[in-house]
Amino acid sequence: MANSLISVQEVARIALPRLMENLVFPNLIHKDFSDAFSNKLGDTIRVRKPIVFEAKEFDPSQGTTAQDIVENSVDVQLNKIATVDIDISALEGATGIDDIGRQFIEPAAAALAAKINSDGLELYKDVYNHCGTAGTTPNSLGALAEVRAALNRNNVPVAPRCAVWDVEADAALTTVDALVNAEKCGSTQALRDGSIGRVFRMDNYMSQGVREHVSSVTAATAVKVASNVSAGATKLNLTATTLTGKLIRGDILDIDGKSYVVTADTADASSNAISNVSVSPALPALSANTSVAIVGSHTANLAFHPMAFSFVTRPLAKPAGVESYVTNYNGISLRVVNGYDMKYKKESMSMDVLYGFKTVYPELAVRVLG
To answer: Residues 6 or more apart from 207 whose CB is under 8 A from it?
Structure first.
């Protein structure tokens, strides 16, 4: 390393708070963390789902009915490693930790956070409830009221609620007086800097990681259910006057006043029809010729209760024969490794995070189209 007195432990301990400051989405959702080192890329972790109770009206004549505490779980695959790697030669001009912070730690932490945010916000593909208009950026207090109404209709708990907006919505919403004057909040610098404001009991944030959903349906006219569907089914067939292209995971179908998300890519339409469309949630009984609306390409802003999603991270193992250090804080684990490539005779430094995301309760989230 350029300065042998600067250890990977020091780099890691400085880098992790910088990473935390740049994270937005993972800091707003349920986090599951363990300091065990027995995990690697591809491992599956069983995560307990947050417990949900139902509040019932008290009937004096019947008394109370105890509800069981049922701890369900979901499997989350640790299928992501965000990493930034450099040759040590890139730090030859560094003379101290301040130089290394400017040349490596700060930009590496920002890059890791950008990837982690973006990966998490891809969970929009599991969210079927939606509001707003595809292709139209939310830009008013009325748009936020529509989000509130959508959350209320789906019985999402009133607190806490969060929304993450893309840069265009951020630019539009920050001109709304109620948001400009709203009290900023958040426990990390990224949340403070990214906060648009709190309104209608919902905390609003901006992230460059909000995803664009691009439909693969190129033409659709008079789309209908092709044949009767039994209650509880998760597949249906579609037919139309004109239907070309295909449905992809994350597409939304509006059927008979309810919304469904496509859970797997389909084959290309043939003879203006697409068969075996997998959807969630389960369908009610539907008659043939029931009209279907396919939501087009849009920006997938998200409004949600924190229990809708889970962020899972585990420490990466320390590799043998090289200098390494793993540090943990507030549900995030970061590894820094100083290694040597014998093949190319190069010393290198790596900063990485092992993690996975999972949608836990999709009904507690709303996709806000933009």
So the answer is: 24, 25, 117, 121, 164, 165, 166, 194
